[in-house]
Write a structure and sequence with these properties.
110 residues, 2 domains, mainly alpha
């Protein structure tokens, strides 16, 4: 099994923005099948679409000095979130990286 993440960031004036989730998913699957002809409907187990009006945090000057630590002052509470990937831009690869880093810190504390 594989997880495939497809993204498309667009302006709210783009006609695709107001298209139904189902139609967008179908359009993306159609595109995948053009690139990878071996993909069939039977092998697609799930498809989810997420929308967010604002998807990028605005980072202020000096933020690098204030990045939250994974291990919080609250015993047993850990934080792994988008603000911690700085100075990188948002991306699934960075989400995975911070998740792995958090998991390692949790394992060290067990």
């Amino acid at each position: 099994s594989h997880i495939v993440y497809l993204s498309r960031y667009l302006d709210i004036s783009d006609p695709l923005y107001s298209t139904s989730d189902k139609n967008i998913i179908n359009e993306f699957i159609f595109g995948l099948k053009k690139v990878f002809p071996s993909i069939t409907d039977e092998i697609i187990k799930n498809a989810t679409l997420s929308r967010a009006l604002f998807s990028q945090p605005v980072i202020k000057l000096g933020y690098g000095l204030n990045i939250p630590k994974i291990k919080t002052p609250v015993k047993g509470l850990y934080l792994a979130s988008m603000p911690q990937i700085y100075p990188e831009d948002r991306g699934m690869n960075y989400a995975v990286r911070i998740g792995q880093k958090a998991a390692n810190e949790i394992l060290e504390d067990l």
